Amino acid sequence: MDKKKIKRISTKNAAFLLAVVLLGSVGMAGCQNEKALENQQAYRKIGINKMNEGDYKGAVESFQKALDQSLAEVGDMELDICYYKATAQYNNSDTKGAIATCDALIDYDDEDATAYFIRGCVYLKDGNSENAQKDFEKALAISGNHYKLYLSVYDNLAGAGFTNEAEKLLSKALKFKGDKPEDYRERGHIYLIQGDYDNARKELDIAINKGDTKALLYLAQVYDAQGKSKKAQPLYENYLKKNGSDTATLITMSEMQMESGNYQEALEFFQQALEAKNPENEKQLRRNEIICYEYLLDFASAKEKMSSYLEDYPEDEEAQRENIFLQTR
């Protein structure tokens, strides 16, 4: 069976080469004063914004400032910030710093699956595949039947060239028992990645019939992978209608439209994503918006958008050169 590469949907910024999959809503450390907690939340938000912008060094500094507000207390918020800090260090190529942060997390709680997962990703990037595999196995053992973690480990292993090990993980995850809607959805998702579209449709249809609207996205991707875009498009639209402003999906859909040469549709999806509050990858979204206008030969709009873009990102030398081109149109 021929396999078409599936564009995976992530709930995190695509620039984050790690997916911190176990983080949910966090609690607050109980012994901080109100001002310190307010500062901590502010620095955390600044750090996340800097990560979205690709400023990983600045993100690390902001996360450290957030941790400095903790007054030596460790709670869910501090752990959450440490995960983000390790991820920013990883993306800033500071593998030693990221490992040290993870080591501290594991020293605090040796059953912290997220810390093992992140450290495994760092080891993998650093070329230490043996330690990476050990940490991944530990994280998976702690987390149990956690589909998203299995898929995140799969992504990292496959991306590093460990195809056989990655495929074995997917096969193992397919054996998980469960008859909840999300169980059918995630099994369908895995079949989609494997290129087994018949089984993917069966699992996803059951998930949808059980009321899981997120499965609509994967079913749309099944049809896209089979070249049935007319069937895929209404599913994408239905998914967005039922799941609100899902910027990750909007970005993926817009990129798919660009690849297909449908620049008007791509532009509309990019603009929908930009309407979200603090959209992920705002810088790249705005660049792609300009590119769409150029392909549509709407140079007046492209010039206007480029002028605004360069006010916010004057350091983008490629955009500066492109702006010179636009002035000649």
CATH class of the domain at 1-145: Mainly Alpha
Terminal Cα span: 47 Å
Give me the secondary-structure category: mainly alpha
Over all CA atoms, what is the radius of gyration?
A: 21 Å
* CATH architecture level-2 label of the domain at 1-145: Alpha Horseshoe
Instruction: Give the helix level as a range of percent.
Output: over 70%
> What is the helix/strand order?
HHHHHHHHHHHHHHHHH
Examine the coordinates and then state which fold CATH places here, giving the name of the CATH topology of the domain at 1-145. Serine Threonine Protein Phosphatase 5, Tetratricopeptide repeat
Can you say what the CATH homologous superfamily of the domain at 1-145 is?
Tetratricopeptide repeat domain
Question: Which parts are unreliable, with pLDDT below 50 for 5 consecutive residues or more?
Answer: 1-31
Overall outline: globular
Please state roughly what percent of the residues sit in beta strands, choosing from under 5%, 5-15%, 15-25%, 25-35%, 35-45% or over 45%: under 5%
- Strands, count: 0
If helices are DSSP runs of H or I spanning 4 or more residues, what is the number of helices?
17
Largest sheet: none
Quaternary organisation: single chain
Q: Summarize model confidence as the mean pLDDT.
A: 84
